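Input record, target 12 of the design panel.
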């Protein structure tokens, strides 16, 4: 996801920060430091592992945040189950003005197509949903197929 404070250009710069450390000799230490829910809010003054953890959490775990951009990383369900004051990250931005297609995954409980230029790609294949692909050169076109193997969510 993208926190409401970041433009697409800023998101690309933040992704490059994480990429740089993953390509460096510090990558193993980054992996050790990357897990956790803090910091929960972006600040340009964030530094070190906390800054990289926040960036990574946005790109890999963000589903809900509040209008100030505080992340809610514990709720993984569909919209409507989140704590009061939190909304899906894509509802807190005017992505229409970004003039770019925004694709994201790792939120199979959405089970929906979103309007405009924001596209949820995870349609829950491993949980009995479908495997989906989106063609984005030109007008977006969806393709999906049934999955052959379904995982048991209980183990």
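The sequence produced for target 12 reads:
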């Amino acid at each position: 996801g993208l926190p409401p404070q970041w433009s697409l250009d800023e998101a690309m710069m933040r992704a490059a920060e994480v990429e740089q450390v993953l390509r460096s000799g510090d990558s193993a230490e980054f992996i050790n430091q990357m897990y956790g829910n803090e910091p929960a809010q972006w600040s340009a003054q964030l530094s070190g592992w906390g800054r990289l953890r926040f960036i990574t959490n946005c790109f890999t775990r963000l589903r809900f945040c509040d209008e100030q951009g505080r992340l809610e990383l514990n709720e993984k369900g569909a919209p409507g189950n989140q704590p009061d004051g939190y909304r899906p990250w894509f509802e807190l931005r005017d992505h229409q003005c970004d003039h770019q297609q925004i694709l994201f995954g790792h939120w199979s409980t959405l089970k929906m197509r979103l309007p405009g230029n924001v596209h949820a790609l995870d349609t829950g294949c491993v949980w009995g949903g479908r495997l989906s692909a989106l063609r984005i050169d030109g007008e977006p076109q969806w393709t999906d197929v049934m999955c052959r193997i379904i995982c048991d969510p209980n183990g």
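The first strand starts at residue 64 and ends at 65.
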